[in-house]
Design a protein that fits this description.
The protein has 578 residues and is of the alpha+beta class. The chain is elongated. Helix content is 55%, strand content 7%. Helix 3 runs antiparallel to helix 6, helix 7 packs parallel to helix 9 and helix 9 runs antiparallel to helix 10. The protein is built from 25 helices and 10 strands.
């Protein structure tokens, strides 16, 4: 029992009264506090709301200094409020003083460092994969403007505790961090929550990662580390690749040089791991943009298991027969070298994205590769060619006919997110080696041509007056793909681009969305940024809307958990709904 006096004490009851009643609830400074008189002649005060789901603790049981909530049987140590059950969170406790037979309470919690509290609880939630605890922590930290804490703690947890390396949870979290500025303000913490819970999902049941030490060497030449790293990935030598990468980082290579090493290795083979390899590499770099490149040695080695295990598409029959795409790409890469030497990427106003994309979508592969090479010879910059290929990939979901098998949505998705990653990587660390990814992406778009037969037309504005509620209503019904596309097209025609982006984000975050839904929304916004104010930008948003609504509605259990956390944070009494 705390006996020191403060200037903030309020009288709660007489000791005689409390001894007789055993419990008493008071209100002070906006808090509802319950006092307990225990069998060992002690008085304790805690928040009356169970931190788990808000049940009134005055209806709980106290024995041996342990308070048990009767709703979900969470147990708390009365003296400090700490929980014995991590799912429940700690209950706020308050200082008590007895003066002249009266009980006084300080209505300010003993633990007042809320940022420290929620950071610890976030760690516990990640470690135990407790969704409600993670939701509460994210809501609490976001309210304190501590978004950076959320990202950093979850990122380091995900990278250090999964020996098999980078997984989709880290990509989801990074994608959501990227789109935070364009989401509705009240959706931003929910976006981070989705990222955090997916990181925890990836780690649960996995062995931790143990770092290898960097080499002891004076070697500092970037070209040497680049060659070593590519060799080790080529031969699937995981330990050697990790030591090489860690040594390069320790040697002081620039962020761009380190990223270039990884991007080069990720494009030494065709469309590695159906595009995930280069997409994960790009996302790892974007994550470091958020949490700081001083964490490069913590984050980037997590890419290596995926790099060395990746399927190489030149080994797959679809890429070799009936058209030998590896052979075509070999010749096209040689031609691209010559074209770039001649063109020197000199035409900074190059704007033929639509023509290149139409060739990729409709022409034979040799002809579409020649179109890209000729554009480079005419001076098209690589970043613009990468954007053109990404636009072509974005058109596949626009024209995807719902007569296709449902799983084929993922086929068009993989190519689009791959080409987006190549585009973003080219803007970060441009290189001739990375340019191979532009051509690989074009060939992946070619391979999906059958998914646009019959070709679903791009919706024309109908003047329907569609709004956000229209779109959200379509997401509430299964397979309203074309209806959603029409509503989006009508809103875009009315100039409501920001509202469309916000609404699609809100619709995504309502669902128990999978990896691909998060990916395609973020990639669409990236590519929309390349074509904002042009028809191409509208096409990209329409395609993303079609993909997202094809995967809705879901049970929406994740959103329910998040809403519970949000209501508890507001002080609402959930037990009244039970």
């Amino acid at each position: 029992m705390v006996t020191e006096t403060t200037d903030r004490l309020v009288r709660a009851a007489s000791l005689e009264e409390l001894r007789a009643e055993r419990t008493k609830v008071i209100s002070a400074e906006g808090r509802t506090i319950v006092l307990f008189y225990t069998e060992d002649d002690r008085v304790y005060a805690v928040d009356n709301r169970c931190p788990h789901m808000g049940f009134p603790l005055r209806r709980g049981t106290v024995k041996d200094g342990i308070l048990t909530c009767h709703w979900h049987h969470a147990k708390f140590e009365l003296a400090g409020g700490s929980t014995f059950d991590p799912f429940a969170d700690d209950v706020a406790s308050f200082r008590v003083e007895i003066r002249d037979g009266d009980v006084f309470v300080d209505p300010h919690p003993i633990e007042e460092d809320r940022r420290g509290h929620w950071s610890r609880k976030l760690d516990e939630g990640l470690e135990q994969n407790l969704r409600l605890l993670m939701a509460k922590s994210v809501v609490g930290l976001a309210e304190l403007d501590a978004t950076g804490d959320i990202l950093e703690r979850a990122a380091l947890f995900g990278a250090r505790n999964r020996a098999s390396g980078w997984a989709d949870g880290l990509s989801i979290m990074t994608a959501m961090a990227n789109v935070l500025p364009v989401l509705r303000e009240d959706d931003r913490p929910k976006a981070l929550y989705h990222g955090v819970v997916n990181v925890a999902r990836n780690v649960q049941g996995q062995p931790p990662d143990f770092d290898l030490e960097p080499l002891t060497t004076e070697e500092q030449r970037p070209e040497v580390y680049r060659a070593w790293f590519r060799r080790f990935i080529e031969t699937r030598s995981q330990a050697a690749a990790e030591r090489c990468l860690r040594t390069a980082i320790q040697a002081g290579l620039s962020n761009e040089q380190v990223a270039d090493m990884i991007f080069a290795a990720g494009t030494d083979h065709l469309f590695m791991d159906t595009g995930h390899t280069i997409d994960f590499a790009n996302k790892a770099c974007e994550l470091l943009d958020h949490i700081g490149w001083d964490h490069a040695a913590d984050i980037l080695p997590s890419l290596i298991p995926g790099l060395v295990r990746a399927e190489r598409m030149e080994e797959s029959s679809a890429w070799v027969h009936p058209v030998n795409l590896p052979l075509l790409l070999r010749d096209a890469n040689t031609a691209l070298d010559e074209a770039l030497t001649a063109g020197k990427e000199r035409d900074t106003s190059w704007d033929a994205h639509r023509a290149v994309a139409e060739s990729i979508l409709d022409d034979e592969p040799a002809d579409s590769l020649a179109t890209i090479v000729n554009a480079a010879r005419d001076g098209a910059p690589l970043v613009q060619l990468a954007a053109a290929v990404a636009y072509a990939a974005a058109r596949r979901p626009v024209h995807f006919h719902i007569s296709n098998e449902f799983g084929d949505w993922d086929t068009v998705h993989h190519t689009f997110t791959y080409t987006n990653a190549v585009d973003q990587a080219m803007r970060r660390a441009p290189s001739r080696d990375l340019a191979r990814g532009i051509l690989d992406g074009a060939m992946s778009v070619y391979l999906e041509r059958f998914l646009n037969l019959p070709k679903q037309p791009t919706p024309s504005p109908s003047g329907s007056g569609a709004d956000s509620d229209t779109i959200l209503g379509e997401f509430d019904r299964q397979q309203r793909v074309d209806e959603t596309a029409q509503a989006v097209a009508d809103m875009l025609a009315a100039g409501k681009h920001e509202e469309v982006i916000e609404t699609l984000g809100h619709a995504l975050l309502r669902e128990d969305a999978g990896f691909h839904q998060f990916q395609i929304y973020e990639a669409a916004l990236r590519q929309y940024g390349n074509f904002q104010g042009r028809p191409e930008g509208d096409h990209i948003l329409i395609g993303a809307a079609r993909f997202l609504t094809a995967h809705a509605p879901t049970v929406r259990a994740s959103g329910q958990t998040y809403q519970i956390a949000l209501r508890l944070n507001r002080g609402e009494a959930l037990h009244e709904d039970a």
